[in-house]
TrEMBL record:
This is Germin-like protein. InterPro entries: Cupin_1, Germin, RmlC-like_jellyroll, RmlC_Cupin_sf. It comes from Hibiscus syriacus. It is found in: Secreted, Extracellular space, Apoplast. Keywords: Apoplast, Disulfide bond, Glycoprotein, Manganese, Metal-binding, Secreted, Signal.
Length: 154
């Protein structure tokens, strides 16, 4: 009896290590594949445990939500010249803007076969069906008419 099986997997490459428990101070960590991690031999069950998801967070803020921001919304910017390269870490929001007086050509290389590129403005204001303007007004702290104007542009 002949048995044939064909399997195709489409995903990003697996991490190079099983886990990386973050450390607050790099002197407490080991450098593993470009990251400071707790020495894996010292990992304990509590490193993978959190309790409290059943407790409401503090939503007394303009967005009406409670999140632990991570990372810290810092803008990294750099003026590039011919021949320069800039790497955008996977999943990070990024933009390119030509500040020169002539046309510019840029090559983009993505690390995934299925990169899932999303243009943020189109995704937010141009979704089909449209996102409820009340949601966008709250999320972006905009007047609802401003949201409707942006939605009408797509
Ligand atoms: C909730 O957050 C608001 C705004 O930051 C703050 O003034 C208030 O004290 C917080 N309430 C609690 C119970 O932590």
């Amino acid at each position: 009896m002949a048995f044939a099986c064909s399997l195709a997997l489409a995903s990003d490459p697996s991490p190079l290590q099983d886990f990386c428990v973050a450390v607050k101070d790099i002197k407490d960590g080991v450098f593993v594949n470009g990251k400071f991690c707790k020495d894996p031999k010292l990992a304990v069950a509590d490193d993978f445990f959190f309790s409290g998801l059943n407790k409401a967070g503090n939503t007394s803020n303009p967005y009406g939500l409670s999140v632990t921001p991570n990372p810290d919304y810092r803008l990294f910017s750099k003026i590039l010249n011919p021949g320069d390269v800039f790497v955008f870490p996977m999943g990070l929001i990024h933009f390119q803007f030509n500040i020169g007086k002539s046309e510019a050509v840029a090559f983009g290389g993505l690390s995934s076969q299925n990169a899932g590129v999303i243009a943020i403005a189109s995704a937010v204001f141009g979704s089909k069906p449209a996102t409820n303007p009340d949601v966008l007004a709250k999320a972006f702290q905009l007047d609802k008419d401003v949201v409707k104007y942006h939605q009408s542009r797509f």
